[in-house]
Amino acid sequence: MAQAEKKGGLLRKSSASKKPLKEKVVLMYDEIFTVEDPSKCNPRFWEELFLMKVNLEYLEGKLEALDGEELMKIKDNINCLFQHCIQALGEEHPIRVVNALQVPC
Questions:
Q1: What share of the chain is helix, strand, coil (3-state, %, to 5)?
Q2: Which InterPro entries does this entry report, sorted A to Z (predicted)?
Q3: In this structure, are residues 48 and 21 in contact, taking their beta carbons and an 8 Å threshold?
Q4: Does position 3 have pLDDT exceeding 50, yes or no?
Q5: Left if phi > 0, otherwise alpha if psi is -120 to 50, otherwise beta: which for 42?
Q6: Is residue 14 exposed (0-12), middle (13-18) or buried (19+ Cβ within 10 Å)?
């Protein structure tokens, strides 16, 4: 079996018959970069996010790609990300602490 492609958050390149697979953490990052609150549909969104290994390359790329107007539209979600990041630093669960430390602040 061929090894999965992980560049840019993709687990598999797209082909004619299959949709590209994305890491779950990348899908969650994409939810943060929408106008709607990501925890609205999933109340455990933030707890789950910090249990997953950070995809720093993808997250930094998404942040750098935003212009001022786009950033203002998702300002509340970005603030929530950093607020929950700081809260995770105070938790006893070491995986959450390590993953929170890796989020670019």
A1: 55, 5, 40
A2: ARMD3-like
A3: no
A4: no
A5: beta
A6: exposed
Q: Write down the pTM of the prediction.
A: 0.78
Q: Residue 7: its pLDDT value, please?
A: 54
State the sign of the Cα–Cα–Cα–Cα dihedral 56, 60, 63, 66: negative
DSSP assignment of 80-102 equals HHHHHHHHHHTSS-HHHHHHHHT
- pLDDT one-digit tens code per residue, 7-48: 566 655 555 566 778 889 999 999 999 989 999 999 999 999
Sign of CA dihedral 59, 64, 68, 70: negative
Site of tokens 């560049």: 7
